[in-house]
Structure formats: structure tokens, C-alpha cells
Amino acid sequence: MIRPALLAWREATETLLALTYTEEEKRDETIARIEECLDIREKVQVDIAAPFTPEEEAFGKELVAMEADVQKKLASLSKRIRLDISQSQSKKDHMKNYVNPYSNVARDGTFYDTKQ
User: Fold this and answer.
1) Which of 6, 16, 86, 98 sits at 20 to 30 Å (Cα–Cα) from 67?
2) Which residue ranges of the chain lie beneath pLDDT 70?
3) Helix (H), strand (E) at residue 4
């Protein structure tokens, strides 16, 4: 018999794997659900301790394999989010430079004549 904590861990892990494949439009909802799943796993982790039955050990090996996949998917998701944030910041900077092209002119040691 497998402990309910292990089953809850696996369910949360499968949900995490499914959430990493969502669309870009629902990113905020996805992030909130990912945080919920991670909180569930954190609470359940306290109940997962030795000794394990042979059946639980086999089940645990599957969970370890799934965990590696979860780590890869979450790292990929965070990388995409960071990339989108940097692209957004870059677009904002380009727009500012387009509106006022002389705002970032270096004036180190040069004479700037305000009278024309």
C-alpha cells in the first residue's frame, strides 16, 4: 500500500507537468496554479519519510524521474518569462529613444552650447 502523501505528491507533480504546456495568454493563472502545486508538495513532503515498503520504493523511483522532468520544465518556463521581461524592457527603452533621441547623448568633458 502506498501512502496518501506519496499519491498527493505524484498528483501535484503531474499537475505541474501539465501546467508547463499552457498558452502565453494565461501566464498569470498558470503561475498562480504552479505556486499552489508547489505549496501542496511542500506540505506533503513532511509526511514522506523512511521506512518505505518495496512498493513505495518503486513508486519513489518513478517520482524521482518525474521530478527531474519537472525541474527542466520549470526552468524552461522561468527562462521564457525572463526573456519576455527583457524583451519588454528593451521595447520600452527603444520607444523612449525614438521619442527623444538626444536624451542619452554622452556629454563627458564636451562643451555644450545652450545658446545658438
Assistant:
1) 86
2) 105-116
3) helix 4-19
Q: Which three cell numbers stand for residue 86?
A: 527583457
- The pLDDT value given to residue 116: 58
> Count of CB atoms within 10 A of residue 98's CB?
8
Q: What is the DSSP letter of 108?
A: T
Tell me, what's the pLDDT at 51? Answer: 85
The 10 Å CB-count burial string (b at 16+, else e) for 21-57 is eeeeeeeeebeebbeebeebbeebeeebeeeeeeebe
Query: Cell numbers 568633458 label which residue?
Result: 109
Residue 1 grid cell:
500500500
Count H helices, E strands: the chain?
Answer: 3, 0
Q: Give the model's pLDDT for residue 106.
A: 66
Query: Which set of grid coordinates corresponds to residue 26?
Result: 494565461
Q: What is the pTM for the complete model shown?
A: 0.73
